[in-house]
UniProtKB/TrEMBL annotation:
InterPro entries: ADH-like_N (IPR013154), ER (IPR020843), GroES-like_sf (IPR011032), Lipid_raft_assoc_Zn_ADH (IPR052585), NAD(P)-bd_dom_sf (IPR036291)
Lineage, top ranks: Eukaryota, Viridiplantae, Streptophyta, Embryophyta, Tracheophyta
GO molecular function: oxidoreductase activity
Pfam families tied to this protein: ADH_N, ADH_zinc_N_2
Species name: Lupinus albus
Domain of life: Eukaryota
Protein name (database record): Putative NAD(P)-binding domain, polyketide synthase, enoylreductase domain-containing protein
Gene3D superfamilies (UniProt xref): Medium-chain alcohol dehydrogenases, catalytic domain (3.90.180.10), NAD(P)-binding Rossmann-like Domain (3.40.50.720)
C-alpha cells in the first residue's frame, strides 16, 4: 500500500495534532460481477477515497460476514448495485481510527472502534481501510476483541431498529422472536431482555441452551415441536427474522391488538430486481401499504418491513450493553481475508451455522 495524501486537522482540534498521513491505496475484496464465491477478488491496489468532513477512516482488524453479503454477491439488489460495480462487500467492522475528517469529534486517531455501514453502501468493509461516517462508528467495547466486536453492530442495529425504533418496546412487555438462533434474532433477544421484556423465541435445537442462557423465558424447537401449541398467550411485538408466509401468519396471530409485526424479509429489493427501479419500487410501496391496511383492519396490528440503518444512539447503547456483559454474538469460525472465497463458500453451503469473521493483519 502507498502512503501519499495527508489530511489536516483544525488547530483547535485534538490539542493541535500534527498532519497525519493516510493511505491512498490498500487491499480490498472486490466484486466485479454477481455470482458465486469465485467472483470475489482480493486486490492489492484499490483506491482509498478522500475523506469527507464527517468521515472516519478505520484500519480494519476484523469484519463479519452477514447474510446480506452473500445475497448481494449473488445479485440481491441488482437493480441498485449493478450500475455501481465493482463493489466492496461487508457491513461490520472493528479496528483502529487511522484518520478523521475535519468535522469529526466523536472519535480520535488511534482509538479502537467498531460500527456498521448502511445496507446500500457501495464501498464496504472487506478492506484494510474502511470509511464510515461518524454516525456509523463508536469506541469499541473494551471487553471484546476485534473479532468479537465485528460480529455485533449490523445485526444488533437491525434488531434495534425493529424493537426500539419501530415497536418502542418497554419493560414488562411480551416479545416473540421468530428465528432466535441467527445473529439478528439473538441480538434481539438480548435487547429485549435488557429492556425488561419477557421473551419467547423459535430456533433450532442447537441454539436452545445459549438462548436460555441470555435470558429468554422460552425457546421452542421449531423442527420438533408444534410452535403454535408450545407458545401460550399473546405478544406486544413479533420480530420475524425468517419471513416466510407461514411464519408471518403465525406471528400475526400471536399479536395483541395494537401490537407490532416486523419482518426482515421485505419485498422492496426483490421487486425492484424483478421489475426495475421505476416499476419495482412503487410496486413494493403499494404492496407494503396494502398489507399495513389489511392487518390494521383485520387484526388491529401494525405491520412493517425492517432493515438496519445508522443510529449512533443505538450503537452507543449496544456498546454499553456489550461492556455490561448483556450483548454478545458468538463467532463460530474465523478466516484470514486471503481466504474470503472459502469463507463465503462455507456460508453458502451451510457448513458453518453461526457467525463467520474475516481477520485482517
Amino acid at each position: 500500500m502507498r502512503i501519499l495524501r495527508k489530511i489536516t486537522t483544525p488547530s483547535n482540534y485534538h490539542h493541535q495534532q500534527q498532519l497525519r498521513s493516510y493511505v491512498s491505496t490498500c487491499r480490498a475484496v472486490v466484486l466485479p460481477s454477481f455470482g458465486g464465491a469465485d467472483k470475489l477478488q482480493l486486490r492489492s491496489d484499490v483506491p482509498v477515497p478522500l475523506l469527507k468532513p464527517n468521515h472516519v477512516l478505520v484500519r480494519t482488524r476484523a469484519v463479519s460476514i452477514n447474510p446480506l453479503d452473500t445475497r448481494m454477491r449473488s445479485g440481491y439488489g441488482r437493480s441498485i448495485f449493478e450500475p455501481l460495480l465493482p463493489l466492496i462487500l461487508g457491513r461490520d467492522v472493528s479496528g483502529e481510527v487511522a484518520a478523521v475528517g475535519e468535522s469529526v469529534r466523536s472519535v480520535s486517531v488511534g482509538q479502537e472502534v467498531f460500527g456498521a455501514l448502511h445496507p446500500t453502501a457501495v464501498r464496504g468493509t472487506y478492506t484494510d481501510y474502511a470509511i464510515l461516517s461518524d454516525e456509523e462508528v463508536t469506541p469499541k467495547p473494551t471487553s471484546l476483541s476485534h473479532v468479537e466486536a465485528s460480529a455485533i453492530p449490523f445485526a444488533a442495529l437491525t434488531a434495534w431498529r425493529a424493537l426500539k425504533s419501530t415497536a418502542r418496546i418497554s419493560e414488562g412487555q411480551r416479545i416473540l422472536i421468530v428465528g432466535g438462533g441467527g445473529a439478528v434474532g439473538f441480538a434481539a433477544i438480548q435487547l429485549a431482555v435488557a429492556a425488561g421484556c419477557n421473551v419467547a423465541t423459535t430456533c433450532g435445537s442447537q441454539s436452545i441452551d445459549r438462548i436460555l442462557a441470555v435470558g429468554a423465558e422460552q425457546a421452542v424447537d421449531y423442527v420438533n415441536e408444534d410452535v403454535e401449541l408450545a407458545i401460550k398467550g399473546k405478544f406486544d411485538a413479533v420480530l420475524d427474522t425468517i419471513g416466510v408466509p407461514e411464519t408471518e401468519r403465525m406471528g400475526i396471530n400471536f399479536l395483541k391488538r395494537g401490537g407490532h409485526y416486523m419482518t426482515l424479509q421485505g419485498e422492496a429489493a426483490s421487486l425492484t430486481d424483478r421489475f426495475g427501479l421505476a416499476i419495482g419500487l412503487p410496486a413494493a410501496t403499494a404492496f407494503l401499504l396494502k398489507k399495513q391496511i389489511q392487518y390494521r383492519y383485520s387484526h388491529g396490528i401494525e405491520y412493517s418491513w425492517t432493515f438496519m440503518r445508522a443510529d449512533i444512539e443505538g450503537l452507543i447503547e449496544i456498546r454499553k450493553l456489550c461492556e455490561a456483559g448483556k450483548m454478545r454474538i458468538p463467532v463460530d469460525k474465523t478466516f484470514p481475508i486471503t481466504q474470503v472465497k472459502e469463507a463465503h463458500e462455507a456460508k453458502d453451503n451451510k457448513l458453518i451455522p453461526g457467525k463467520v469473521v474475516l481477520e485482517l493483519d
